[in-house]
Write a structure and sequence with these properties.
With 202 residues, the chain is of the alpha+beta class. The protein has five helices and ten strands, in the order αββββαβαβββαββα. Strand 1 and strand 2 form a beta hairpin. Helix 3 crosses helix 5.
Length: 202
């Protein structure tokens, strides 16, 4: 079976990802060319639109996107991020429709402070990731970084918590996912708020 994804489909996905990237860049979460975003365009076979490698995320256009397969290899377009394979792994593993990867100071700092994971509870904003605000421990996993996306994906799969649509990669940044780009954005903003609170509160 092949995915029937038109150039227009890819351009529309690129426009959405460019807008999301500009938002995150305005927060200082995608400095320089760092970070990457993706949206699922097909499930069978798995196909994702991923932001192109080496581009300033505050200046992306609808054309700055690459279609990749379930291994993160380019199917159409230019060169995807080296981390496209992890986006595909997250989408396949979680059923997510969109994945966000940002390099925030709070995620890197907290990954160093809490390499075993970050336990959160009794905060109203936890509702933003679908969890109870009180009396429940919610674990935000932290995993060791790797330049091997298969190894990093294995670590994410082993560590991920069904209560939290996110993982901190130590010394690197934050991966967050959602049903679509809007929900992935909301989840990212909530998780980053939680990380900033933990960072400032210690």
């Amino acid at each position: 079976m092949t995915a029937d994804i038109s150039a227009l489909d890819l351009e529309e996905a690129g426009a959405v990802l460019a807008a999301e990237a500009a938002r995150f860049a305005s927060f200082g979460w995608m400095r320089g060319t760092s970070g990457n975003l993706s949206v699922v365009l097909s499930r069978d076979p798995l196909r994702l639109a991923v932001t192109a490698s080496g581009r300033d995320k505050g200046e992306l256009t609808a054309a700055d996107v690459v279609l990749v397969d379930g291994r993160g290899a380019a199917v159409r377009g230019g060169r995807p991020s080296a981390e496209a394979a992890l986006h595909a792994r997250v989408a396949a593993l979680t059923g997510a429709g969109a994945v966000v990867h940002v390099h925030t100071v709070a995620s890197v700092a907290m990954g160093r402070r809490a390499p075993g994971g970050i336990v959160l509870r009794d905060l109203e904003i936890l509702k933003g990731v679908g969890q109870p605000a009180h009396d429940v421990d919610v674990l935000l996993p932290v995993i060791a970084n790797s330049q091997d996306m298969t190894e990093l994906g294995d670590r994410l799969e082993a560590a991920r918590s069904p209560r939290m649509p996110a993982v901190v990669v130590a010394g690197h940044g934050l991966y967050v996912w959602g049903a679509d780009p809007r929900q992935a954005r909301h989840h990212t903003e909530v998780v980053e708020w939680l990380l900033e609170l933990e960072l400032t509160g210690r």
